[in-house]
């Protein structure tokens, strides 16, 4: 271990009082940027790329004292969080939302809850049959699965390029096919199911297509950065993605602020096609929300245990090969906690703090 160099006398000085308050303000109200979910929620009126669902929530103000508006109630009801008659202030429905998705249960629209509400997500409702249970995977009602003979079996899939009501592919067909091929391969690695692409869309087990607005299945899309896609439980095989999104593939570091990673969403929706509902583990593929410019494609232990409960394990797969830590046994609050390195604040942090506070005020 290397010895730490002694601190200079200037760095050892206590933080001046104004900077202490600035630091406190920064901790209580984290800065946002034009690409973050809280900015998209609170500034959606000035952002033409924001979805109508988020626009319904514009009356929501950041902070613990915020009220649950009618627009927010409708938004939550869309994903399975129905308000009860005696929930006048909305605390009960907010608590249910928080407990289901692994947030600290406060009953208040704190910044963390607003961030998640504003994050683009899957359109499949969250199943909260056990809202106080330890964060873990879940199934659709009745635990449907693809019924095939024991052992390895084959499911075919097809991606529709353009055939009404399906929209043209938002990316080159080769890039879209590659993204879905990798997404299906991740699930095939852990269960005894093979996936093969076919050109015969009508005969395929899984049918993938990009659609816009109300497309006839009772689950209309709502434009950019709202509902990203949805899929139906077995044996439907329908997997729909919102054509209005700014889809991207590859490295998200160079993508536009509102870009959504196609492979990440495809991996999530295939989990629904196989019979998995939403998980309350924030790191899991089956967690319902995905921030723009985020690549999230690797199955966690929670995802693997869920899908293997339906289909068994691929004999060639070992749980020890997963690189992600097991978060399925962690408490919801712990799974969503940010950690900071210990240490004292010195005068050397004053300039970065001022910059961050300026960003906060601009937001």
From TrEMBL:
Cofactors named for this entry: Ca(2+); Zn(2+)
Annotated region (Disordered), positions in chain: 318-344
Cofactor binding summary note: Can bind about 5 Ca(2+) ions per subunit. Binds 2 Zn(2+) ions per subunit.
Keyword annotations: Calcium, Hydrolase, Metal-binding, Metalloprotease, Protease, Signal, Zinc, Zymogen
Residues holding Zn(2+) 1: 215, 217, 230, 240
Binding-site positions, Ca(2+) 2: 205
MF (Gene Ontology): metalloendopeptidase activity; zinc ion binding
InterPro entries reported for this sequence: M10A_MMP (IPR033739), MetalloPept_cat_dom_sf (IPR024079), Pept_M10_metallopeptidase (IPR001818), Pept_M10A (IPR021190), Pept_M10A_Zn_BS (IPR021158), Peptidase_Metallo (IPR006026), Peptidoglycan-bd-like (IPR002477), PGBD-like_sf (IPR036365)
Biased composition (Low complexity): 318-332
Domain called Peptidase metallopeptidase: residue spans: 142-313
Binding-site positions, Zn(2+) 2: 122, 268, 272, 278, 286
GO biological process, one term: extracellular matrix organization
Active site: 269
Binding residue positions for Ca(2+) 1: 245
Domain of life: Eukaryota
Family: Belongs to the peptidase M10A family. Matrix metalloproteinases (MMPs) subfamily.
Protein name: Peptidase metallopeptidase domain-containing protein
Species name: Triticum turgidum subsp. durum (Durum wheat)
């Amino acid at each position: 271990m290397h010895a730490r160099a002694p601190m200079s006398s200037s760095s050892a000085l206590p933080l001046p009082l104004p900077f202490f308050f600035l630091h406190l303000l920064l901790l209580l109200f984290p800065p946002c940027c034009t690409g973050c979910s809280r900015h998209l929620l609170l500034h959606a009126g000035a952002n033409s790329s924001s979805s109508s669902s988020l626009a319904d929530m514009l009356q929501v103000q950041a902070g613990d004292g915020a009220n649950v508006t009618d627009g927010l109630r409708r938004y939550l009801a869309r994903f399975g969080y129905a308000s009860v008659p005696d929930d006048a202030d909305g605390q009960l429905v907010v608590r249910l939302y928080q407990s289901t998705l692994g947030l600290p249960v406060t009953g208040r629209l704190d910044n963390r809850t607003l961030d998640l509400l504003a994050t683009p997500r899957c359109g499949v409702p969250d199943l909260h049959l056990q809202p106080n249970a330890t964060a873990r995977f879940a199934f659709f009602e009745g635990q449907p699965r693809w019924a095939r003979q024991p052992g390895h079996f084959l499911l075919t899939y097809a991606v529709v390029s353009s055939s009404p009501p399906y929209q043209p592919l938002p990316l080159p067909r080769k890039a879209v096919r590659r993204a879905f091929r990798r997404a299906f391969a991740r699930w095939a690695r852990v269960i005894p199911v093979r996936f093969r692409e076919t050109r015969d869309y009508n005969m395929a087990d899984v049918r993938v297509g990009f659609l816009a607005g109300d497309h006839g299945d009772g689950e209309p899309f709502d434009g950019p950065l709202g509902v990203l896609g949805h899929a139906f439980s077995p044996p439907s095989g329908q997997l729909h993605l919102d054509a209005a999104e700014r889809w991207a593939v590859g490295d998200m570091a160079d993508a536009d602020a509102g870009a959504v990673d196609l492979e990440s969403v495809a991996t999530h929706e295939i989990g629904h096609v196989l019979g998995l509902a939403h998980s309350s583990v924030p790191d899991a593929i089956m967690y319902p929300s995905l921030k723009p410019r985020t690549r999230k494609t690797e199955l966690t232990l929670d995802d693997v245990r869920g899908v293997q409960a339906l289909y068994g394990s691929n004999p060639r797969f070992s749980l020890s090969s997963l690189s992600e830590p097991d978060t399925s046994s962690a408490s919801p609050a712990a799974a969503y906690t940010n950690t900071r390195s210990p240490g004292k604040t010195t005068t050397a942090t004053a300039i970065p703090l001022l910059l961050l506070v300026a960003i906060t005020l601009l937001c």
